[in-house]
Amino acid sequence: MDNFIFQNPTKIIFGKGAENGVGKEISNYSKKILLLYGGGSIKKTGLYDKVITSLSGEEIEYIELSGVKPNPRLSLVQEGIKICRENDINFILAIGGGSVIDSAKAIAFGVPYEGDVWDLFLGKAVVAKALPLGTILTIPAAGSESSTGCVITNEEGGYKRAVNSELIYPRFSILNPELAFTLPKYQVACGVTDILAHLMERYFTNTKNVELMDRLIESTMKTVINNIPIILEQNDNYEAWSEVMWSGTIAHNNLLNTGRVGDWASHDIEHELSGIYDVAHGAGLAVVFPAWMKYVYKQDVERFAQFAVRVWNVENEFWSAERTALEGIKKLQNFLKSIEMPSNLTELGIHDDKLEEMADKCTNSDTTKVGNFVKLGKIDVLNVLKLAK
Predict the structure, then answer these.
(1) pLDDT at 316 (0 to 100)
(2) Residue spans per domain, the chain
(3) Any bridge partners for residue 154, and if so which?
């Protein structure tokens, strides 16, 4: 196990009706906020009215910015920065899933930054200050409600890039599983795939003697796998949603990073898919992750075999480690197919003409290696994409 420091300052407020107390939570920080959300779903479900009532009860002034899209756009972030600066806003409330929360984070560190906020995504500068923010989670998936991460797409060039900073941990996040009851099945499946991907990125490590974290990651994966069929049949099953929503948070709040170095190549590769083609992040991961596994499993066949046995219940008494490992990858693919996730790039509408461009952008023309379990250059990324065809 590697040395580590773990600290997560996000206050989690979990349970039925938790959103009704959002005004009181914000009153600890500000009386004037940016209210950020996506489309009209929060108005149809009544969540918007609950939030406004809570804000009004604490005499909190708000300015709204809606229209956040999946694979959140830089242009909306820039609009949010402008609104905050012009109106002296010093707190952001994000209502939604990862796209809304990531947009809020980018606005939060973009307001005090004097240059172009995209500089921070290109590594030309680092986050030095950020406005405080809070969240009301409606889509369990990205884990952004208590993470250091933020991913934004620049429409010019189709670049999707990330920033990580401890300054963008939300001050609080409200998690009420009831708020996920109205999600379409496809969105549910994409979210679950994203959660599993966050867990698998951490699981496949070269660090030895990490049994505790292995077991925690495995149990979280099994919890998601066990509960998603229930949700897809009964979208208003509070107990099943509770398991999945909390698993999504735990999967990405950095606890499961401790003592180990994860991989993250699959996320880097998928960002090129969704950056250019605007595919759902979870759907892209459903295609990329099994392909990555097939490309790198020989790096540590025993770990892949362990994944197969402990997570997918593969019986390996009479099998070789390699056959067990491959069976685990197959079980993962079958599970993803069972929840109607795509199996290949063709199903995503992605064809051969852009594969080399995506590999080139992912690795900065082979000057950057992505991943840690196996470091991948441009040719490696291209080979993974070919396996995903």
Answers:
(1) 79
(2) 11-179, 183-387
(3) 159
Report CA 324 to chain centroid distance, whole Å.
Answer: 29
- The Cα–Cα gap between 59 and 21 comes to 13
CA distances from 194 to 89, 252, 310 (A): 32, 10, 20
CATH topology identical between 11-179 and 183-387: no
Tens digits of residue pLDDT in 157-172 = 999 999 999 999 999 9
Q: Which residues contact 328 (CB under 8 A, 6 or more apart)?
A: 304, 305, 307, 308, 309, 311, 312, 314
Q: Where are the alpha helices (DSSP H) in the chain?
A: 22-26, 41-44, 47-57, 74-86, 98-110, 118-122, 185-203, 211-233, 238-250, 265-277, 281-296, 301-312, 321-338, 355-362, 378-387
Please give the model's pTM, rounded to 2 decimal places: 0.96
* 176 in Cβ contact with 280 (< 8 Å): no
Q: What is the C-alpha to C-alpha distance for residues 304 and 308, in angstroms, rounded to an integer?
A: 6
Q: Which of 141, 204, 360, 365 is nearest to 272 (CA)?
A: 360
- Domain 11-179 class in CATH: alpha beta
Domain 183-387 has CATH 1.20.1090.10: yes
In angstroms and rounded to an integer, the radius of gyration of the C-alpha atoms of the chain is: 20
